[in-house]
Write a structure and sequence with these properties.
There is one protein chain. By secondary structure, the chain is mainly β. The protein has one domain. The protein is 9% helix and 41% strand. The protein has one helix and eight strands, in the order E-E-E-E-E-E-E-H-E. A hairpin with an 8-residue loop joins strand 5 and strand 6.
């Protein structure tokens, strides 16, 4: 089965980025990422920079850092170990994509629920891509 994930960044703030995550064109949840930087014009700040827009292959595997199954983005230029996981603020991102509900600026709520739901859905898929806009 194929799953197309779309992340539409909706608010690029100085300290964080808010977005909406869609699964096969159906809204799933909000996202929280680090600051979007134009890496052709400015330096990447390790652990504080969102990944570049683009299309990436996604696999679900056991994260050595977190010890549980998580979606991992492959072949992201200038980044390694990019996951989609739970967390509440941009301090929890380290370049990764956090899932949840954007009820308060710069924070993700009910994140553990959305991570679990996402992993359950993606574990059933064999071909997963994410497009970040």
């Amino acid at each position: 089965m194929t799953m197309e994930i779309m992340l539409k960044r909706t608010a690029k703030k100085r300290e964080y980025t808010i977005g909406k995550l869609y699964l096969n064109d159906k809204y799933f949840c909000d996202t929280l990422e680090d600051t979007v930087r134009d890496l052709s014009k400015e330096e990447k700040v390790p652990g504080k920079t969102a990944i570049p827009a683009g299309i990436y292959k996604v696999i679900v595997n056991k994260s050595p850092r977190f010890g549980r199954q998580l979606p991992k983005l492959l072949d992201v230029p200038h980044f390694t170990g990019i996951l989609i996981h739970k967390g509440n603020t941009s301090n929890n991102t380290s370049g990764c994509i956090l899932v949840g509900e954007s009820i308060k600026n710069g924070m993700a709520f009910n994140s553990a629920y959305y991570e679990q739901e996402l992993v359950e859905l993606l574990c059933k898929e064999t071909d997963i891509t994410i497009e970040i806009k």
